[in-house]
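PACRL protein (Oreotrochilus melanogaster), 227 aa
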Amino acid sequence: GSNVLRMSSGVQIKPKAAIQKSKTSLPCSPESAIKPQPKPSDKLNPKTIDPFGVHSQPSSVFAATYAKGGIPCRLVHGSVKHRLQWECPPETVPFDPLLVTLAEGLRETKHPYTFVSKEGFKELLMIEGAAEKTIPLLPRLVPVLKAALAHSDDEVFGRGLDALVQLSAVVGPSLNDHLKHLLTNLLRRLTDKKFREKITVALQKLEQCGGKASVAIIKSKIPTYCS
């Protein structure tokens, strides 16, 4: 009268009725499970990435460096605006290679990389004595900025343009030797109405910081430029 059949080997086999009964007691299948609802923040900021997430795969040198703690500043969320918090005073941070790494980060398209790279680059250039630390890095900085200015993403181009103006204000005429490598991408974007005025203002600032010698360089690449 037992529900279990015993075989000579001692293995117990349950009849079909018992197996079917146990199946019915299982929880609902994954297909019928309720899917997690997307968070409101996903809609507000769809490009946000958690650099420390288990499944995050850094897609660039900057992202990988940031994830490993190689960038000595972090994003602090504020109620009005975000800001950077430095692990040590920016004045004590070696510009080589951090300034170049931050410039690399200007090509990022995901938050927080976009904010950290742009704000970090800007704040490093604001410290006292930035010029003497930056000028030796120009041969490495210029190709990186050129890549940002050549990027198809409008926001990346805008960050690259802002960084170029900031750099020019710090190093002055020292940028003139490298200027021609950066102007081709500005000329290409001049046909875009939404950037025309911003590029024109940027060129004027490059002239102000670069002196008279910069005018001939700018005109050689952008003949329509008026001093």
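The chain has eleven helices and four strands. Residues 61-221 form a domain with the Serine Threonine Protein Phosphatase 5, Tetratricopeptide repeat fold (CATH 1.25.40). ok done for today
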